[in-house]
Give the backbone structure.
Amino acid sequence: MDVTVTDSTETPLRVWVVSDGRTGIENQGLGLVEALGALRPVELTIKRVGWRGGLGALPWWLNLAPLPGLTPGSDIAPPWPDIWIAAGRATLPLSLRMRRWSKGQTFVVQLQDPRVPAGAFDLVIPPKHDRLQGDNVLPIIGAPHRVTPDRLAADFARFENVLAPLPHPRVAVLIGGKSKAFGLSQERAAAMAHEIELPILQEGGSVMVTFSRRTPEDAKALITARLRHLPGMIWDGQGENPYFAFLAAADYVLVTEESTNMTTEAASTGKPVFILKMEGESLKFRLYHEELERLGAARPFGGAFHSWTYEPLTETARAAAELLRRYDARTGNG
């Protein structure tokens, strides 16, 4: 899929965003490219890779000849891009060889912690809470994303007839689900729904609820049943996704603690962000939430809403600017 992000007479940078196609992973790369496009003309190509048989489950170092192992439609072939931006375990066998395949012409960027030596890439952009360091490592708070004021305004306009009449305070509720460190049982889902319901009833506000693909179906059904009597909108996954419109319309944002993506996106709005407790513990996520608290962006949810102000996170723009600086230095354009 090819998209020109900016129009200009200047020759655009050819950029590939490579992932296994999962929305949360792919959107990190797309957000970074969109931020790049605000600085330099960009021609974007989206690549969604798959692996034949059990190759995708193998450690990267056992996938010795990756190109023949790709599924049809992966379309990883020359001419190679100027900049390769990849995220996720599925891309590692390719990212690790891209500099050799391109004879050093492609600037290789890997998002998240690749769990391989960072020197194999031109730039690694992991979450700060992964505590990865190195000369070619650019740690950022959270993850790259696609939240911008323009995107929020445009998405709100599409749902304005539904969302504008909702009573204040409008509360966006972003529910994730099971991860390596966290879970969401029916018991926790019931307690979470109760924690959300009470202050809405007390303040006369409304809810705008969305679930992730990781939300267990029983937890999703329970939360929906417990909150559907409140004014608002609960997205059932059908039709156009109102996620960005919810962020735009919200006075407050509630987000479950296990999602770096959703928390970072919420903290990029400048609106008060409350963290909903899940089942489980994670040192990395505790460090991440403590960093957000230090910056004034987020606080644990204690069953009541209150307002405060802070500078919205602009980490995606910062990462794009640093990527471009390093690319220019490498190619002699700086």
